[in-house]
């Protein structure tokens, strides 16, 4: 903050810095001293406080003083005008100091706000005409911080362990890396890095199985007893799958992971995916400040969950020809056998590989 304040002082309207102000004040002091010496060669104290009634020769004093006055009257006038201009300058300086002090106060008051907003500060710009405006959508990437790169190894509390996944992720983000998090029940059929948009802070595969469930929809709530306003519109989306997501290193992302880790530590039996989604989607409300993460739902045919595959895709000749990037066997407990069947279908071309399996679980 000190550097910041200095910056403010020296940069505002080319006003003098504190050092320059001190030098000017000292200069004024010396000039005033010289002026006094000129005006009152016998010293200020004597000039003002000695009087004709003192024990020295009063007549001599008066004549001396008068002749000195005559001799130096021209000089005095010059110096007086100089003094006037100096005091004018002094006044200006004082005004500038006051102005700077006010600016400093305002800066101090805005410090907290500035600290917050500097995290997300971008060039301010005009909005532009209708139809041309596009928001950036993401917060800026953090500056890599390597000061805390191995603290996870030292934290050992049993409650903390349930949130450990998110705490480990956090450390990578803090170091400035983006992360693609993957569960182990995932089959890769293409390189996922070739299919990431990287435009949002969280890009996640969905637990949804259709456009409406995966990408969001207007679910109309009907209350006939209300009469004319019987329909209420609600926003609705199926949860993101916290077993496959891409997260960019921003302050908002770290905020998300910290919140989820904190929840998991406080409520060890809660489901991390529920916490992840609630933190990600609920807006700010009275008594709660929500997140500011931008989100992208991945294409649910490319980043496919096992419900989509077994309920829809395997029964549709056209969809079957699509090659997913990944298949996540998240919906089914018979993971290994279904994973092998998925490999048989997509990698080994065994068209009936999925046939033995029901849409849902065996029981
Ligand atoms: C991580 O921390 C250790 C110990 O604090 C240090 O020796 C190492 O250089 C650090 N690594 C990086 C990449 O900063
Ligand atoms: C689902 O959305 C995609 C693109 O978002 C669109 O191409 C497709 O037609 C939609 N399908 C249905 C059934 O609405």
From TrEMBL:
The chain crosses the membrane at residues 21-40. Residues 130-154 are annotated as: Disordered. Keywords: Cell wall biogenesis/degradation, Coiled coil, Glycosyltransferase, Golgi apparatus, Membrane, Signal-anchor, Transferase, Transmembrane, Transmembrane helix. GO terms for molecular function: glycosyltransferase activity. Residues 145-337 form the Nucleotide-diphospho-sugar transferase domain. GO terms for cellular component: Golgi membrane. Residues 76-110 form a coiled coil. Its EC number is 2.4.2.-. The keyword Transferase applies. Signal peptide: none annotated. Pfam families: Nucleotid_trans. It is a single-pass type II membrane protein. The keyword Cell wall biogenesis/degradation applies. It is found in: Golgi apparatus membrane. GO terms for biological process: cell wall organization; root hair cell development. It comes from the Eukaryota. Its main location: Golgi. SUPFAM superfamilies: Nucleotide-diphospho-sugar transferases. Belongs to the glycosyltransferase 77 family. This is Glycosyltransferase. The lineage of its organism: Eukaryota, Viridiplantae, Streptophyta, Embryophyta, Tracheophyta.
């Amino acid at each position: 903050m000190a550097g910041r304040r200095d910056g403010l002082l020296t940069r505002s309207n080319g006003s003098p810095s504190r050092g320059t102000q001190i030098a000017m004040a000292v200069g004024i002091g010396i000039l005033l001293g010289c002026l006094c010496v000129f005006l009152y060669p016998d010293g200020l104290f004597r000039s003002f406080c000695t009087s004709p009634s003192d024990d020295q020769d009063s007549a001599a004093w008066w004549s001396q003083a008068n002749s000195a006055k005559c001799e130096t009257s021209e000089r005095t006038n010059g110096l007086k005008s100089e003094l006037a201009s100096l005091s004018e300058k002094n006044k200006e300086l004082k005004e500038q100091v006051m102005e700077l002090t006010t600016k400093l106060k305002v800066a101090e008051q805005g410090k907290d706000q500035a600290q917050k907003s500097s995290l997300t500060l971008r060039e301010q710009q005009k909005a532009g005409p209708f139809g041309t405006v596009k928001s950036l959508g993401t917060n800026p990437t953090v500056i890599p911080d390597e000061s805390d790169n191995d603290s996870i190894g030292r934290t050992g509390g049993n409650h903390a362990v349930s949130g450990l996944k998110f705490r480990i992720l956090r450390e990578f983000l803090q170091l400035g890396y983006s992360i693609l998090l993957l569960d182990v029940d995932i089959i890769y059929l293409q390189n996922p890095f070739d299919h990431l948009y990287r435009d949002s802070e969280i890009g996640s595969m969905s637990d949804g199985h259709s456009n409406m469930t995966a990408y969001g929809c207007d679910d109309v709530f009907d209350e006939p007893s209300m009469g004319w306003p019987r329909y209420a519109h609600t926003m609705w989306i199926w949860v993101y799958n916290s077993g496959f997501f891409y997260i960019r290193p921003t302050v908002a992302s770290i905020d998300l992971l910290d919140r989820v880790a904190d929840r998991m530590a406080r409520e060890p039996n809660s489901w991390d995916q529920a916490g992840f989604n609630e933190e990600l989607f609920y807006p700010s409300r009275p008594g709660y400040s929500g997140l500011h993460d931008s989100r992208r739902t991945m294409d649910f045919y490319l980043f496919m969950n096992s419900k989509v595959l077994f309920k829809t895709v395997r029964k549709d000749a056209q969809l079957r020809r699509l090659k997913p990037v990944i298949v996540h066997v998240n919906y089914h407990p018979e993971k290994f056998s279904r994973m092998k069947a998925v490999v048989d279908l997509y990698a080994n071309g065994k068209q009936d590989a999925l046939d033995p399996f029901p849409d849902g679980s065996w029981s």
